[in-house]
Specification:
Elements lengths: L3 H31 L11 H20 L2 E3 H4 L13 H17 L2 E4 L6 H10 L5 E3 L9 E4 H4 L3 H17 L13 E3 L5 E3 H12 L4 E17 L2 E15 L5 E15 L2 E8 L5
Parallel strand pairs: 2-4
Antiparallel strand pairs: 1-3, 5-6, 7-8, 8-9, 9-10
């Protein structure tokens, strides 16, 4: 008599092995054809990984077949005057018409910081109109997004935003190795190099000493940067004070000047050196 339990177990194991082998082949296909690296975090089943990989490949194949058009063609070659030809009232009317047309094509344009209508209108009609994109009505509800700062970087604003973000994450005790605003390597005052995971581990060991941080007040007093082609160095400095609450509810006031040093690579500012009260 056959042992049906063992038979089913062997069958399930064979299916699992086959799926794992197929996943490896799918990952190789993505790496070879698209240069993509896949990483799965957590306890994700082979079946779910398989479905994900197949969806990615199907999307890439569909995307590669979509025609490449510039935005002017996607919008069916609309007629809009140059910005310099419009007075303020006519510009406002033309801009509203332009935005409505763009939104109908599932295209979003966003700006960091305030930009006046003339800047926005000129940017769209004189720069984005010639920008090429993959476009096909079959892509359904997918949106195409443009960011003004990708064309006209505001480095001071980006450094300021990342400084606010770092301080917020520090006070919330939410800094880990996944933080994209931290560089992959850090420099110490003695010029010793540390890996990102070493720095975040040290930061989290500091967090473990306290129940929470509260009553944070800070100011950013200066932001500066220097660029050389596509590489840059910058910093943000100011003053901060906050209360660190111990596990017995005793509070310790921590305050002093801070300075965060940034480097720019691949159009992305990251923090590589930290002078910060509470971080030794």
């Amino acid at each position: 008599m056959k042992n049906l339990g063992n038979h089913n177990l062997n069958h399930n194991n064979n299916l699992k092995q086959n799926i794992q082998m197929e996943n490896e082949l799918l990952e190789l296909k993505l790496r070879a054809e698209k240069g993509a690296q896949t990483h799965f975090m957590g306890n994700i089943s082979p079946e779910l990984q398989n479905a994900f990989l197949k969806n990615i490949i199907a999307f890439e194949e569909s995307f590669s077949k979509t025609p490449i058009k510039n935005l002017f063609e996607v919008l069916n070659k609309p007629v809009f005057p140059f910005e310099s030809e419009l007075n303020d009232h006519a510009l406002e009317i033309a801009y509203k018409s332009l935005v409505k047309l763009i939104e109908q094509k599932n295209i979003t344009i966003f700006y960091e910081g305030d930009r006046d209508l003339r800047t926005k209108y000129k940017f769209i009609t004189e720069e984005l109109f010639i920008e090429e994109i993959h476009f096909d009505d079959l892509l359904g509800d997918m949106r195409c997004c443009f960011r003004y700062e990708d064309f006209h970087p505001n480095h001071a604003l980006e450094i300021e935003d990342k400084t606010h973000s770092f301080i917020t994450n520090w006070i919330q005790q939410n800094i880990d190795n996944k933080n994209l605003d931290l560089a992959e390597t850090f420099t110490s005052p003695t010029s010793k190099i540390f890996r990102k995971d070493e720095i975040t581990s040290k930061i989290n060991n500091i967090f473990k000493c306290y129940n929470k941080f509260k009553n944070c007040h800070y100011s950013i007093d200066e932001i500066n940067f220097e660029l050389s082609k596509d590489i840059g160095l910058g910093f943000a400095e100011g003053y901060i004070k906050y209360n660190a609450v111990l596990y017995d509810n005793e509070e310790v006031l921590i305050e002093g000047p801070f300075k965060l040093y940034f480097n720019l690579e691949y159009k992305w500012w990251t923090i590589f050196f930290i002078v910060f009260p509470g971080f030794d």
